Amino acid sequence: MTNFDEIIERRNTDSLKYDFAARRGLPEDVLPLWVADMDFRTPPCVIEALVEKSRHGIFGYSESREDYFAVLKSWFSRRFGWKVQPEWLIKTPGVVYAICMAIRALTSEGDAVLIQQPVYYPFESSVINNDRELVVNELAYENGRYHIDFEDFERKITQHRVKMFILCSPHNPVGRVWTKEELTRMGDICVKHGVIVVADEIHADFVYPGYSHTVFANIKPEFADITVTCTAPTKTFNLAGLQISNIFVSNQRMRKRIKQEISRTGYSQLNVMGMVACKAAYAQGEEWLEELKAYLQGNLDFVRSFVSERMPEIRLVEPEGTYLIWLDCRALGLNDKALDDLVIQRAKLWLDGGHMFGQGGSGFQRLNIACPRSLLEQAMERLAAAVANR
């Protein structure tokens, strides 16, 4: 059994999460629960595979072989019933990179790209930085739960002649695990209007009991034909720094154009250690993942109880997936600047302010619960004290 309660010192390790608060204008002593990496060691099987490769001592240009794809195929088939084919695979250093490549390859400057805010903030910057028109189908928040405004979704597509939709599934930060029915309705609209779908499914492995992740491209052949599916082991196994993602595109024309765009950047082979880690994780890391998910469920239960009992002014948006918790702080009556000040300066916490995720995130905060319970308890006590003394 993995000891997820172990405190592992991450300061002074060049950790983006821990070592760059002052550089970003925050107090040095903030407790960081912001960026989506975990405070747990990756599975022992991954560490062993990386050590073995290190001992070999040669880190030359490397490429994946059939055994690499075999573990991907097994993982997605076993866990999601999705039968991927080797020719669909494009390996990239990250999902955001892949999204940008898809935008550049499959749309033109000035074309409209639709996202559903509040959503992972690199979606917006990826669209804007590549000189595309940003179109937002705002998620509707009612009775503590988010849902899709399908009428607005289709209306925005037709009004703006949207060429691409970036789907976040499971959704970061609101925690929705979209149902097959919701995905099908969106997919049918996209097929009807000729909209390409880039599906960011990086959080697919983190779904809570009672919910299941549906691979968008696996619903209908028509969906597969318009979809770029972005996956990675990095969130699942805490490997973000190794820069490895696996992108699947069954449409040959789309796949060729994305590969050409990647080639224009000068990028070719992956980081060899990323490939080693990915293969080991998918081949041998499943038991560790199930232990982790059980621990995260305990962390979620703790936060739910704490917020309810100690901070009734704050509402937990009940997550269906991901280890990123969305807190509705609007009842505190603070604007975004004042809310950030309360969290950072008074509670001495580094979270992600909801306004970063779009206008609909105003008044919210995103909290990463993938940490030892004792750190989470400390964070909640800090926040409760700041709220009580505001």
Highest CATH level, the class of the largest domain = Alpha Beta
- Average pLDDT for all residues: 98
Q: What is the multimeric organization of the chains shown?
A: single chain
Report the major sheet: 7 strands, mixed
Instruction: Determine the number of helices (DSSP H or I, runs of at least 4 residues).
Output: 13
First and last CA, distance: 42 Å
The CATH topology of the largest domain is given as Aspartate Aminotransferase, domain 2
H-E order: EHHEHEHEEEHEHEHEHEHHHEEHEEEH
CATH A-level architecture of the largest domain: 3-Layer(aba) Sandwich
State the domain count: 2
Task: Report low-confidence residues grouped into runs of 5 or more.
Answer: none
> Can you give the helix content as a percent range?
40-55%
Specify Rg, calculated over alpha carbons.
Answer: 21 Å
Can you walk through the features of this model?
The protein has 390 residues and is α/β, with parallel strands linked by helices. It is 41% helix and 15% strand. It has helices spanning 44-56, 66-80, 95-106, 122-129, 150-160, 180-192, 221-224, 234-237, 252-264, 272-284, 286-310, 336-346, 373-388, and strands at 31-32, 89-92, 112-115, 133-136, 140-142, 145-147, 162-168, 196-200, 227-231, 245-248, 315-317, 324-328, 349-350, 352-353, 364-368. The chain has a seven-stranded mixed beta sheet, sandwiched between helices. It has a four-stranded antiparallel beta sheet with strand order 11-12-15-14. Strands 1-13 form a two-stranded parallel ribbon. The radius of gyration is 21 Å and the shape is globular.
